[in-house]
Specification:
By secondary structure, the protein is of the alpha/beta class. The chain has 16 helices and 17 strands. Helix 12 packs parallel to helix 13. Bound molecules: adenosine monophosphate (AMP).
Length: 393
Amino acid sequence: MKKTIRDYELEGKKVIIRVDFNVPIKNGEIQDDNRIKQSLETINYALEHNAKIILLSHLGRVKEEKDKENNTLEPVALRLSELLDKEIIFVTETRGKLLEDEINNMKNKDIILVENTRFEDLNGKLESGNDEELGKYWASLGDIFINDAFGTSHRAHASNVGIAKNLPNGIGFLVEKELNIMGKAIENPKRPFTVILGGSKVSDKIGVIENLVKIADNILIGGGMAFTFLKSQGINIGKSLLDEENIEFCKKMLKQYKDKIILPIDVATSTNLEIPENKKECPINEIKENDIGLDIGNETIKLFKTILEKSNTIIWNGPVGKFEIKEYSNGTKELCEIIKEKENTIIGGGDTASAVINLGYKDAFTHISTGGGASLEMLEGKVLPGIDIIEEI
Ligand code: AMP
């Protein structure tokens, strides 16, 4: 078991917390502050225990000097200050005298937010490349390191792995929740365990399919990726998405796991993406040359429902239709309706999370992961370096 923030005496200690404040910002306005809110539990805990809190986060990508302007964490400092109803000391440098002086002057319960760690990428990708000296330098500013940024835990950066190597460390409440819920669901699922996979490409999900097909009882496939599976069975898919290179992979999976992998039996199609009203539904073997499959059909929803209703763990990664277009969001929405009644329901981060949240199901599931890439890698059964580096109890 990993050490957590609870395993340390925090009183008077300088606690560096790696948070995920990588929020969408347009013209200085935060579009969605969910990630900031998700970090509050750990920050509040450190406050209650009289720590001196130093927050580090990346924001966007910083490749050139001019990227700094759009990727400053200053708006985040303001929002965090509103949410905590407390002053946040925002330090505009990622290293040097200004930062060190501010830290030396800290009193218990003070909070410093350091400028975007990726500003260090301008000096030769020091942050993203996990530069050893940078990790050591940041570690030298604190006494304890807490990783609470699940969304970057699949990457070894100076601000997570680099610091953790050089300080006593643990995970925060958000990372703990991700590990407890998603990690446990994969390791020891309450059965039947059903996985819903969708999204655009098979190639992005190969690792997930290979790992979960061995663990799950059912894999329901929808979205653009379903068409490569259907094509591998000789079905005409018209102009639907095809991942040519992975037809053989799909064929092999279906042969080996024919009782577990369940494909759509009907689809909603259009002949023109520009005219979504052209929508029609047909059985899977009646797709015409000019049809583009954009959602699962009603018969498929019924079929998936019978399986989902019996399931005791459900993990969902990838929308089952082109949900951004209202006419093709029905399958994704109906699956939300079915599984919101169930327990142990876990939604992968990234596109799946935005799909269910946009459709109005933000609070309908046991857990919506905060990490797109990180949750995908966890479902692939990979070790996440940002978590692997954390000490065991
Ligand atoms: P992913 O990031 O692989 O989970 O893919 C998510 C994207 O897949 C979303 O933008 C959906 O619009 C898209 N998608 C889902 N189903 C389809 C489909 N049938 N045809 C084209 N795109 C789809």
